Amino acid sequence: MKTLERITLRHTVRQVVRVDMGGNLVTLRHLSQPRFNVVTIGMQGPVGTVAESVLTMAQQAVQTANYASDKASQVSQDQLVMVSGMSQTIDHYIGAIGAQE
């Protein structure tokens, strides 16, 4: 096994139970064994590099954020036009009611 592929794991957990029974001291020691699963094994690139898949996902996220920002701007403009139209309609009816009086 190459040094780069070696994993060293030190895990020491002891469960100690001491029972004093009429002057007799009983000690039970149990060493628990570590449990782990290897999910994947691979090579890590040099420090400071990013995988192509991560760069692609980041670029897609930027594009999606820009699209969302454009849509939000359009919706905001549409709302301003709608509110302006409602205000003009209300002003028209207020003027018409005032003219009838």
What do these coordinates show?
The chain is of the alpha+beta class. 49% of the residues lie in helices and 16% in strands. It contains 1 helix and 2 strands, in the order E-E-H. Strands 1-2 form a two-stranded antiparallel ribbon. A hairpin with a 2-residue loop joins strand 1 and strand 2. The protein starts with 13 loop residues before the first strand and ends with a helix. The model has no long low-confidence stretch (mean pLDDT 81).
Strand arrangement within the widest β-sheet reads 1-2
Overall structural class, as computed from helix and strand content, comes to alpha+beta
Topology order in helix (H) and strand (E) letters: EEH
The largest sheet is: 2 strands, antiparallel
Uncertain regions spanning at least 5 consecutive residues: none
What proportion of the residues form beta strands (DSSP E)?
A: 15-25%
Helix content range of the residues, please? 40-55%
Figure out the total of helices.
1
Basic shape: elongated
What Rg is obtained from the alpha carbons, in whole angstroms?
Answer: 36 Å
